[in-house]
Amino acid sequence: MSCKTPPARGPLRYTLVLTVLAAALAAAMIAGLALGQVRIPAGQVVEIVTGQADPSPFRTIVLDVRMPRVLLGAIVGAGLAVVGTVLQALVRNPLADPYLLGISSGASAGVVLVIVFGIGSGLGLATTVTMPAGAFAGSLLALVLVYTLARRGGQMTGTRLVLAGVAVAYILSALTSLVMVTSAKREHFQEAMYWTLGGLGSARWDMLLLPAVVLAAGTCLLVALARPLDLMLVGEEGATVLGLDTSRFRAGVFVLTSLVTGVLVSVSGAIGFIGLLVPHAARMLVGASHRTLLPVVALAGAAFLVLADLGARVIAEPQDIPVGILTALIGGPFFLWLLRRRPEGTPA
Amino acid sequence: MSHLRTEGLSYGIDGRHLVDSVDIEARPGETVGLVGPNGSGKTTLLRCVYGTLAPTHGRALLDGEDLHAMGAKKRAQRLATVPQDGQAVFELTVREVVAMGRSPHKKFWEADTAADQMHVREALDRVGIGALADRAFPSLSGGERQRALVARALVQEPALVVLDEPTNHLDIRYQLEVLSLVRDLGTTNLLALHDLNLAAYYCDRLYVLDTGRIVADGTPEEVLTPDLLKRVYGVNAEVSVHPTTGAPTVVYLPPSP
Fold first, then answer.
1. B238 reaches A (C-beta below 8 A)
2. Which residues face B236 on adjacent strands?
3. Which positions, given as ranges, span the membrane (chain A) (predicted)?
4. Which of A150, A267, B109, B162 could make a disulfide contact with A224, Cβ separation 3.0–4.6 Å?
């Protein structure tokens, strides 16, 4: 842990950070609506969105094609960043992230099993009910598995946690690919990559409601739980003697984070490293206390994924590459930097 | 002020007793010291008292109520402690760490009120680190960190304070400061201490723990005898009453050839 004093924090500074991030998110979203194979001037985008434009030839592109994708990016980015922050507090480890801990892969595996076995598709419930439910079950299972493996024999070290997470993530991604690739249906073959690498290409208006509701409710609940989340930062024993029933709290928040991750993965696949990168950057800005940290994390995560997805769309035009590839390219080196920064043997 | 009592308290793993049928007592307002060689079971006994270990036999009672059955939150409203792993992973400020002491008195969703913040400021001033309130907790020196944790115990408004080697790794000046602070809290205090002279000066009564059992108890004068030091610690020592402090003073003698 570095020992430099963080910059002075006050309500004014905090408001400034929130304002700047909100502006950045707005700018990223406008850019996301304006750029692509068809470039639309930003002014016109704003007019279309606010309904001031005369019937415009770009209306459909902006409102029906790009808008759902940009909104989904914001929702998924915010959610993954919030989940990463909370996981880092729960396991008291700065290397935690829903992707690295295998939770996203568990969710992918859950979704894929639902698709391949057609659970609920006969009733027309696949996208709205059974896929998110499968993802939730998969993510919860993966999280419990990783946590149990990492904790065996008492103390949980950072190395053990990350190794267990990466191993479980690999096994589950391999399983996902295997199930998809060997499936009788041809289109499943292509989908394998989408679920293991993550992407926002399939965004439609009708799939936004559930993730939006789960994100809003989950984030509000977690902000309300800011006090016990802070307590987790001083360790299991420290939190207990300050009055927190740590095992019950951890179990409850594990379920909540699995639910949020599961629902997000069921619409975007397993996008990695946002939950690792964004919380650290946000802590440098506003400190580690969750009541102030979580809103900043949500805004920053949203802006980050909207931008990354824009990159994924335009970087290899007309190819639309899975955004998970981009986030991994940015997040992977950051992860290595975090590993190096931490002296060997510290539990954190 | 509260009354702490243990009844035949034992803790064991794999059939090995780390703490064996211990009966100790801290009466309201007393500062009671727990001394003994390394590995004698001091920390285990304290953990059974502050509730992070469940005794395998016996009970720890606070004003007649079983501390372990009480539940973490109710226990934390009445008992404060400074555990040894009390370091934050991320950079919380000193103020944030100290404010955590208000948690047992709050609903989990409640934010700190102006009164809570006042409590925190007063406690920081009382332990003499008011100027460090906005510093990152991990950036403090060992002594400052220890004092911040005592401040946290203060804002917890406990009736009983349990401390495990609160002076570990501190310079002598801070050792004296921290122990004076604790004794002046006006609470019932139970502390494990390494340094017998500090224990003799700051504690009303002492318990000597050896391989999990209480082998002596009483006032420092009664307990700290050359005979006991030879028996429990295996050292030769002279004990005299110090003319200034009036407390027994132990001088260790090199092993006789």
1. no
2. B253
3. 12-35, 70-91, 103-126, 133-150, 162-184, 205-226, 253-281, 293-315, 321-339
4. B109
List domains and CATH numbers for chain B. 4-253 (3.40.50.300)
Q: Is residue A348 part of a domain?
A: no
Contact of A243 with B77, CB cutoff 8 Å: yes
Any domain includes A64: yes
SS3 at position B51: coil
**pLDDT, position A6:** 46
Amino acid, single-letter form, for residue A171: I
Determine how many CB atoms are found less than 10 A away from the CB of residue B113. Answer: 11
Give B135's contacts in chain A (Cβ within 8 Å). Answer: 5
- pLDDT tens for B20-45 read 999 999 999 999 999 999 999 999 99
The strand pairing partners of B192, in sequence order, are B34, B164
Query: From B77, which residue of chain A is nearest by alpha-carbon distance?
Result: A243
Block residue for tokens 């989340």: A229
- C-alpha–C-alpha distance, residues A166 and A335, integer Å: 13
Q: Tell me which residue range forms the domain holding A99.
A: 14-341
Find out whether A107 and A262 touch, Cβ atoms under 8 Å.
yes
Reported as type and span, the H/E element at residue B35 is strand B31-35
Alpha helices in chain B (DSSP H): 42-50, 72-78, 94-99, 114-126, 142-155, 172-183, 196-202, 220-223, 226-228
- CA-based nearest residue to B111, from A230, A246, A235, A252: A230
pTM, full prediction: 0.87
- Contact (CB<8Å) A291/B81: no
Structure tokens at A296: 């900043």
CA–CA gap between residue A297 and residue A290 (Å, rounded): 10
How far is B66 from B6, CA to CA, in rounded Å?
Answer: 9
Output the domain CATH number for residue A241: 1.10.3470.10
pLDDT at A251: 87
Q: Which two tokens stand for residue B213?
A: 């059992």
Residue scoring higher pLDDT (A48 or A8): A48
A191-237 pLDDT per residue, tens:
777 777 888 988 889 889 999 999 999 999 999 999 999 999 888 88
DSSP-derived 3-state class of residue B80: strand
Q: How confident is the model at residue A348 (pLDDT cuts 50, 70, 90)?
A: very low
Mutate to test the interface with A, among B68, B75, B89, B134 (most CBs of A within 10 A): B89
